[in-house]
Amino acid sequence: MAKTKVQYEFPMHCQSEILYEYMASAEGLSEWFADDVVEKGDDFYFSWSNGPEEKATLIRYKPESFVRFRWEEDEGTKNYFEMTIVIDDITDDLALNITDFCDAGDEEENRLYWENLIENLKLKLGAS
Fold first, then answer.
1. Measuring CA to CA, which residue among 47, 46, 74 is closest to residue 59?
2. Using one digit for the tens of pLDDT, what is the confidence trace for 27-84?
3. Residue 59 DSSP SS3
4. How far is residue 17's CA from residue 28's CA, in Å, rounded to a whole number?
5. Side-by-side strand order, sheet with 66-71
6. Band (126; pLDDT cuts 50, 70, 90)
7. 3-state class of 91 per DSSP?
8. Which of these, 9, 23, 8, lies nearest to 125 by C-alpha position?
9. Is pLDDT at 23 greater than 90 in this prediction?
10. For the chain, what percent of residues have pLDDT higher than 90?
11. HSE of 104, CA atoms in CB hemisphere, 13 A
């Protein structure tokens, strides 16, 4: 069954270079996204204390700009999750845009999941 594409925007108060490290490195991701992250080439292994390890492959990225991962369970589909740094040309305000895919009917749960993750990231960055 096809998943639904969802997008969120979170204002961030930090430097883009620092934010990118938290998005694109195993060390950074383990600070806020999962309990532990191991990077092996383009494959990232995410583990949480309450569940099994999950593998995602880094399928696209642009330094200081965005990262796009595809979960192993989504291989062969167009599903992915992407984190993009957006800087407003006029105000220089920085935002983190999230693109994700979830099952139809799970949009609210997915939004709450990302809001919780981003709150955790903001605490780690001191960017609340």
1. 74
2. 999 999 999 999 999 999 999 998 889 999 999 999 999 999 999 999 999 999 999 9
3. strand
4. 12
5. 4-12, 94-102, 81-87, 66-71, 54-62, 43-47, 36-40
6. confident
7. coil
8. 23
9. yes
10. 91
11. 2
In the predicted structure, residue 94 carries a pLDDT above the cut 80: yes
C-alpha distances (whole Å) from 7 to each of 31, 78, 87, 98 are 23, 15, 17, 5
Q: Say if CB 82 and CB 66 are below 8 A apart.
A: yes
What is the structure's pLDDT at 50?
A: 84
Residue 64, SS3 per DSSP: coil
Record the tokens describing residue 71, joined without a space.
């979960």
What pTM did the predictor assign? 0.93
Distance CA 73, CA 45 (A): 13
Q: Which CATH architecture has domain 4-125?
A: 2-Layer Sandwich (3.30)
User: How many Cα atoms sit within 13 Å of 105 on the Cβ side?
Assistant: 1
CB 73 within 8 A of CB 81: no
- State the Cα–Cα distance between residues 8 and 96, nearest whole angstrom: 8
